Design the sequence.
C-alpha cells in the first residue's frame, strides 16, 4: 500500500515538475520571440519589410492617357484639360513658373519621412517616388508632373496609389492634400 501511495505521489510530482518544465520552455520561447521582435523592430525591420513588400511594376505614367483602376486606394490631382480621367481633386494653379514649383516641391519632399525618388524624367518634368508606412513599410507610389502655363504660371498633376491591398484608409488622399498645403 505504501508503495502504491508513494508511486502515485511520485507521478503527481513528476507531472507537476513536467508542467513547471513546460512553463519554463514556454516562457523561454516567449522571451526569445520578444527579443527577436525587438531586434527586428530596432535594427532590421525596414530591410525585412522592404524585401517582403517590394516595389515592382512601376512604369512610365502618361497623365494624358492613363486610366484609374477600380480600387479606392488611389488619389488623382489634375487639371481636367491635362488628364483624360476625372480627378479626385482639381490641381491648383500657381502664380510662379514650373521651375519654382518643382523647387518648392523638392523642399517639401525633403521634409518627408520614408520617401525615396525612384525615377526622374527631366524632359517631361515628371518624378516617381515611393513612400513607405512607418511600421509595416507598405509602399505607395507617387507620380508628379509639373506643367508650364501661360504668363509664367504653373500647375501640377499628382497620382498617389498603393501597390498592395484594396483600401488605404484614405492615406493617399490625406498625403497629397497635406503636401499641397505645404507648397506656398
Sequence:
Amino acid at each position: 500500500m505504501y508503495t502504491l501511495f508513494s508511486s502515485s505521489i511520485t507521478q503527481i510530482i513528476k507531472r507537476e515538475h513536467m508542467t513547471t518544465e513546460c512553463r519554463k520552455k514556454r516562457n523561454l520561447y516567449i522571451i526569445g520571440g520578444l527579443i527577436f521582435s525587438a531586434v527586428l523592430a530596432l535594427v532590421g525591420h525596414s530591410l525585412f519589410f522592404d524585401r517582403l513588400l517590394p516595389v515592382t511594376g512601376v512604369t512610365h505614367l502618361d497623365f494624358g492617357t492613363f486610366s484609374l483602376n477600380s480600387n479606392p486606394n488611389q488619389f488623382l490631382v489634375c487639371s481636367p484639360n491635362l488628364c483624360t480621367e476625372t480627378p479626385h481633386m482639381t490641381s491648383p494653379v500657381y502664380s510662379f513658373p514650373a521651375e519654382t514649383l518643382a523647387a518648392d516641391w523638392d523642399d517639401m519632399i525633403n521634409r518627408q519621412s520614408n520617401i525615396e525618388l525612384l525615377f526622374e524624367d527631366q524632359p517631361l518634368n515628371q518624378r516617381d517616388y515611393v513612400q513607405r508606412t512607418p511600421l509595416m513599410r507598405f509602399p505607395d507610389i507617387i507620380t508628379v508632373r509639373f506643367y508650364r502655363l501661360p504668363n509664367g504660371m504653373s500647375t501640377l498633376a499628382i497620382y498617389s496609389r498603393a501597390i498592395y491591398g484594396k483600401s488605404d484608409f484614405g492615406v493617399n488622399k490625406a498625403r497629397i492634400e497635406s503636401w499641397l498645403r505645404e507648397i506656398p
About this structure: The chain is about 40% helix and 25% strand.
